[in-house]
C-alpha cells in the first residue's frame, strides 16, 4: 500500500525523490522478511500499463536494487535468490487437482462486490482508470481468477486505497470542511472499523482457545510422542505448526514442515496420494512400512474416526488427532490403543 501511494500520487511520468529513496528500502525489507521479492514487480507492471514509461523504468531499478539489498541481508544473496524462485515453482509440485494444494492457491470467486463498486465509481470519471492503484486492482483481480493470493495480497490493498480516495473525493465535494456531517461520517466509519476488527467472525480471535497441543508433559501422552531421534509422519501442516511451535526444542523431526514442496520426493508422493484420496488413511501405508519404534504417525482425522491402519497401535491424543506407533514389545492394554 505504501509503494502504491508513493507512485500513484506523483506527477504523471516523473517519479518523486521520496519514491526513489523509500521504494528500494521497502522492497529490501519485504525480500528479507518474507522472501517473495519477485512478486513486488507487480506494482511496476501496474505503473507500466498505466502508460508511465519513465516511472515504470525507475520503479524497475528500485525493485532490482531493493531485491538484491534484501537478499544480501540474509548473508547468502545468490543462494537466497535462487531458493526463492525454486520455492515458487515447487509449492505447486506435481499436483493435479486443487485439493492437493493449500487453500490459498485456490482460484478466487471473482470478488463480484469489488468489481461492481469499482465499475460504478469509475463510470462517473473514466480518467480515474489511468491510475496505478486502479490498474493494480484490475491486474490482481484477473490473476486472482487463477490463484486468489494475488487478490488477497495485492488486489485487496489496492481496492482499499481506491475506495479510500473515492470516499475522500466524494466527501470533499459534498461536505464543507466545517460541516458537522463530517463528524458523523467519521464516527460511523470508525464504528464500522472497530466492530469489523473486533468481531469474532468464524472464531478468528478464539479459535485457538480450544486447541489441544501435544506436549511431553501431558501424562496421557507418555510413550506416545516420538522417542529422541524419532520422526513424526504427519498428515498435514496443521499438525506440524501446532506441535513444533509448542515444542521447539523437541528431539524429533517432521516429514512435513513449513511447505509440502520441501518434502523428500518419496514422502511427497505419499502425501499427494492421501490428498488425492480425500485423506484416506490407507494412503499412508508406505510410511507405516518404513516406520521405526521411535517414529510416530500423527493423523488429523476430521470427525475423529480411527485411522484404518491395523499395523499400528492408536491413541486418540487430542480432538480429531490420532497418534499411531508400532506395537511395543510385551502386552498392550486396550486403553493404550483405543483411548
Would you spell out the secondary-structure blueprint of this structure?
Elements: H1 2-8, H2 17-33, H3 42-50, H4 53-72, H5 77-90, H6 112-124, H7 132-144, H8 149-174, H9 181-198, E1 231-234, H10 237-244, E2 253-254, H11 265-276, H12 285-290, E3 296-300, E4 313-318, E5 321-325, H13 334-338
Parallel strand pairs: 1-2, 1-3
Antiparallel strand pairs: 3-5, 4-5
What does this molecule look like?
By secondary structure, the protein is α/β, with parallel strands linked by helices. It has two domains: 2-169, no CATH class; 219-338. 50% of the residues lie in helices and 6% in strands. The protein has helices spanning 2-8, 17-33, 42-50, 53-72, 77-90, 112-124, 132-144, 149-174, 181-198, 237-244, 265-276, 285-290, 334-338; strands spanning 231-234, 253-254, 296-300, 313-318, 321-325. It has a five-stranded mixed beta sheet with strand order 2-1-3-5-4. A hairpin with a 2-residue loop joins strand 4 and strand 5. Helix 3 (42-50) runs antiparallel to helix 4. The two termini are 51 Å apart.
Task: Offer a few descriptive terms.
disordered C terminus, 50% helix, five-stranded mixed β-sheet, 339 residues, elongated, 2 domains, 5 strands, alpha/beta
Amino acid at each position: 500500500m505504501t509503494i502504491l501511494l508513493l507512485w500513484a500520487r506523483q506527477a504523471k511520468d516523473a517519479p518523486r525523490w521520496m519514491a526513489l529513496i523509500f521504494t528500494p528500502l521497502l522492497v529490501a525489507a519485504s525480500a528479507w522478511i518474507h522472501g517473495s521479492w519477485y512478486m513486488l514487480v507487480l506494482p511496476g507492471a501496474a505503473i507500466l500499463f498505466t502508460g508511465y514509461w519513465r516511472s515504470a523504468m525507475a520503479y524497475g531499478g528500485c525493485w532490482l536494487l531493493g531485491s538484491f539489498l534484501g537478499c544480501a541481508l540474509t548473508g547468502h544473496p545468490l543462494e537466497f535468490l535462487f531458493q526463492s524462485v525454486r520455492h515458487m515453482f515447487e509449492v505447486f509440485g506435481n499436483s493435479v487437482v486443487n485439493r492437493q494444494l493449500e487453500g490459498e492457491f485456490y482460484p478466487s470467486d471473482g470478488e463480484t462486490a469489488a468489481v461492481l463498486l469499482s465499475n460504478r465509481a469509475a463510470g462517473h470519471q473514466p480518467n480515474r482508470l489511468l491510475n496505478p492503484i486502479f490498474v493494480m486492482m484490475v491486474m490482481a483481480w484477473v490473476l486472482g481468477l487463477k490463484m486468489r493470493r494475488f487478490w488477497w495480497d495485492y488486489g485487496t490493498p489496492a481496492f482499499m486505497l481506491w475506495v479510500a480516495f473515492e470516499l475522500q473525493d466524494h466527501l470533499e465535494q459534498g461536505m464543507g470542511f466545517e460541516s458537522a456531517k463530517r463528524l458523523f461520517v467519521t464516527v460511523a466509519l470508525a464504528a464500522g472499523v472497530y466492530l469489523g476488527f473486533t468481531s469474532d467472525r468464524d472464531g478468528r480471535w478464539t479459535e485457538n482457545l480450544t486447541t489441544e497441543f501435544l506436549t511431553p508433559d501431558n501424562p496421557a501422552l507418555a510413550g506416545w510422542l516420538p522417542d529422541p531421534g524419532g520422526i513424526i509422519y504427519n498428515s498435514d501442516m496443521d499438525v506440524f505448526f501446532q506441535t513444533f511451535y509448542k515444542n521447539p526444542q523437541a528431539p524429533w523431526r517432521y516429514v512435513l514442515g513449513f511447505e509440502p514442496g520441501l518434502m523428500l520426493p518419496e514422502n511427497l508422493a505419499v502425501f499427494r496420494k492421501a490428498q488425492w484420496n480425500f485423506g484416506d488413511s490407507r494412503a499412508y501405508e508406505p510410511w507405516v512400512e518404513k516406520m521405526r519404534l521411535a517414529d510416530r504417525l500423527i493423523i488429523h482425522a476430521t470427525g475423529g474416526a480411527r485411522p484404518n491402519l491395523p499395523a499400528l497401535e492408536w491413541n486418540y491424543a487430542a480432538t480429531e488427532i490420532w497418534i499411531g506407533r508400532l506395537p511395543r514389545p510385551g502386552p498392550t492394554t486396550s486403553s493404550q490403543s483405543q483411548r
